[in-house]
Amino acid sequence: MTSRVSAPDTPADIKLRSLLDGDPLQSFVMVAGAGSGKTTSLVKALDYVVMRHGSRLSARTQQIACITYTEVAAKEIHADVGNSPLVSVSTIHSFLWTLIKPFQKDIATWVHRHIEGAIQKIKEKQEEYTSRTREATVAKDASDLEKLRAQLRLSSEVERYSYGVGSDYAKGLLGHEDIITMVPDLILSSKLLRRIIASKYPYIFVDESQDTFPKVVEALKSVDSQAQGAICLGFFGDPMQNIFQRGVGSISEEPGWQRIDKPENFRSSQKVLGVINQVRSEGDGMVQRSGRPPEKQVAGELFFFVLPADEQRSQRLEHVRAWLTQHSSAGSWAADSANRGEGAKILMIVHRMVAKRMGFEHLYAAFHDSGSKSLKEAFDEGSAWPIRPFDDVILPICEAESVNSPTVIATLRRSGGLFNEETPDLDVRKRLTLARDAVAHVRRAVAEGGPGSVGKVLKLAMTANLIAPDPRLSAYIKPDGQHAEVVLTSETKNALDAFTACDIKELSAYFKYIRQQSPYSTQHGTKGAEFPKVVAVLDDEEGNYNLYSYEKLFGIKELSDNDKRNLSAGRDSVLERTRRLLYVCVSRAVESLAVVVFASDVAGAKLAIENSHITGGEKILTEADLASL
Ligand SMILES: Nc1ncnc2c1ncn2[C@@H]1O[C@H](COP(=O)(O)OP(=O)(O)OP(=O)(O)O)[C@@H](O)[C@H]1O
């Protein structure tokens, strides 16, 4: 029995339980605000179904499916329910793959259609060539077409498709993006598949549902609709915390579904909760109230600063922290104590200037100036596929004490490279010697660093078979190698050109930032976390980062024509996106929150922020106040 299962019931938990016993079953959407313990509700629901309906499910070889965001979260949830075999907890990708894996014929048909679609697209493009079409474009299209035709030919010989790090149809490999596109397509088009899913999983729960891909939600809803009361499909999420471009955000209730609100907040002090509610009031308007018992409620602290957006931001920020250390009653806000849980956590958007400050400016530029939208987003999140081999294998083997350290061998065993290869002529000792030499080589190259060391190290690690990277990366590093038929888009190629030209030292700085090991955190990466003291830095900084704008949110800066068009068409706009990001930031604070706005027009910004009511009547401090330090 863990603390999450035994946490006190909230009204939402009680309402949910009544649905879990229903006959017919009813599906639901639980809207649970920040700090409300949405995963706690999910775990309690899982536990309840196991206890109440476990023997029936077991007799029918049925399971409860629980879809969550990361492998780590999946393990935690499963442990919470005592690792019950009746509960299948997995990430969305592995859940979808488990569903579809037995349907190899359907997979093959989908792959064929997919390649044919890509061929057709290039043919249409070729028909529109004019005398001004660049030679390089003509050559790339011709080469891509040839590769796609080879893929089509080779894929018809594939006996079995498998799911791995990336896609290479010619070799029978499917990647993450294939799964997320293919499986919903197949579910939506196959009545049989929908029936099989419903009869295997009478309960399907989705955690952090705001981040789920819209097509996946549509597919799950189609399973529910066909099952007509035989299943309970439940989404646990918070539309206000949808801060990734790919997420569905709010999930509409279908006829007969229940909506369950969970407005408690168990995390934040009263003053912080005031800001959270103020930000949310212009979103979906849900008002959160403290879930803590009266004797555990604290007032907390709130500070607002408006400072000039100039070249001295870093110094000003240090100044703010020193001022807070002196004036707040919550102790030190200093940078060097942040990781001992004493100082404050500084939340910033990943900006070019933050990247510069932290020492990964070129890496940032490689992904943000050339990468596709999804690659940019994955970079900000720390999960971009070109970077994975460094995170999974290369940096860990370089950070190990020595070549012979047990972590080196353990890492290589997990890497999918040398040790997993089926080469019968290589005995364990030979493999070890080869691996040690290669690791020593890679460690020297990493220690040397310098421009281009990212590409150099990748090549070394790949040649020595220390890593098994995404086929796109293999195709880039070795165009005539094992994954020769993989097509790279120009965007991907440009991003990889810039990435491989970077200094590997930048990667270490980037990971330090992404893993929240520095006092700074990305506003995106901080989702799900909480800190006693938070400094939220609102800084538009670059004109061209148009996804978010705090100045527009507070009315300091005018909306562009495009923003206005998005707003009037009811599309997601810069205002909604920024409001949600701000909501996620301020709701990370447990006790004390400082909001620092950098603006070019300080007086105008101060007035606009006062008018927004976000301060709850708290005084807005400026440079002059800091001078009193
Ligand atoms: N029913 C409950 N009773 C008391 N405390 C609870 C309950 N549910 C959750 N908590 C506590 O509330 C805090 C916030 O929970 P948690 O981080 O799981 O919320 P969350 O909904 O995931 O938040 P966010 O979406 O903001 O990341 C935790 O400290 C947790 O232990």
Automatic annotation (TrEMBL):
Alphabetized InterPro entries for the sequence: DNA_helicase_UvrD/REP, P-loop_NTPase, UvrD-like_ATP-bd
Keywords, alphabetical: ATP-binding, Helicase, Hydrolase, Nucleotide-binding
Protein name: UvrD-helicase domain-containing protein
Domain UvrD-like helicase ATP-binding: 11-282
Gene3D superfamilies cross-referenced by the UniProt entry: P-loop containing nucleotide triphosphate hydrolases
Binding site for ATP: 32-39
